[in-house]
Amino acid sequence: MTTKFIITSGAVVINSENKILLKRDPKRGWELPGGQVEQHEMIKETVIREVKEETGIDIKLIKFCGISQELNKEICNFWWLATPVSTEFRTSSESIEVGYYDVKDALLLIKNEDFRKELLHCLNNEGEPFFLSF
CATH class for domain 19-125? Predict the structure, then answer.
């Protein structure tokens, strides 16, 4: 039996004040921006498009951080560090609120433990890309 995974690409976007870009999803709550890779789309292109769609912010990718795999949901998430190259927020149906937060505040706002782990691994990634599985 062949298993098909959903592939997503997300970013930890850090501004010049060392604050992290978060968006509030109407169902999942506060989280990092990102989303599903579309057919014939490069993973790098996905994260740039998704951050723009969900937050209004254009980004520049700095580095690849790693992969997290959600075994029970059959999802593989690719994670990046990025900086913003625009400043005007825009919400969408996937983001009812958008803002920059200190790391401490971001960790309090994000209620999903896996999301917090992914954020911390991206911030603390100084060597090889990480690989997490949940």
Answer: alpha beta
